Amino acid sequence: MAKEKIYTKTALKREFGLTDKCLAYLPPADKIWYGRYKSQRYPAWSESLIQDFLAQDEVKLLLVLATKRRAKRQQAAQKAVATKTNALLAELADIKVQVELLPKKKLKRLTQASLDDWYITGNLTTIVTMNLPITKPLTGTSLTTSAIT
């Protein structure tokens, strides 16, 4: 004889998409599900009891409403992500990057001085704030969406 399947609240939410409001209509639990340890006891419902519960009109209505709300929230979230991404891409497109080509000796000296400061102070911002003159624009580069992701 096959073992009857039992459902906890978490399993009901995962498998049937029940919300907390739907769970309020659940009948009292007829089983106990034990977690990893015997001291972990959770209320559980048999498969037959859940099928009867899901056949109720109020529960069907709540599930339909929850599905519609979930779809609306998901669309709103996708729209917000698209808006934010487009705004960021527009902002990045406006950024002009210019780099001056320095002689190798001067670049090495400036880099070494910055690293020495960093080792002495332990402050990473000194590496970022090197005072390199910016005059020549970069050529042959473009910003794309792949650079962001």
Question: Could you outline the blueprint of secondary structure elements for this entry?
Answer:
Elements: E1 6-7, H1 9-16, H2 20-23, E2 31-34, E3 41-46, H3 47-54, H4 57-93, H5 104-121, H6 125-128, H7 145-148
Antiparallel strand pairs: 1-3, 2-3
Can you list the strand order of the major beta sheet?
A: 1-3-2
Order of helices and strands: EHHEEHHHHH
Strand content: 5-15%
Give the proportion of residues in helices.
55-70%
Low-confidence parts: 141-149
Average the pLDDT over all residues and give the rounded result: 79
Q: What is the chains' assembly state?
A: single chain
- SS class: mainly alpha
Alpha-carbon distance between the two ends: 53 Å
As a whole number of angstroms, the C-alpha radius of gyration is 30 Å
What summary fits the major beta sheet?
3 strands, antiparallel
Using the alpha-carbon principal axes, give the shape: elongated
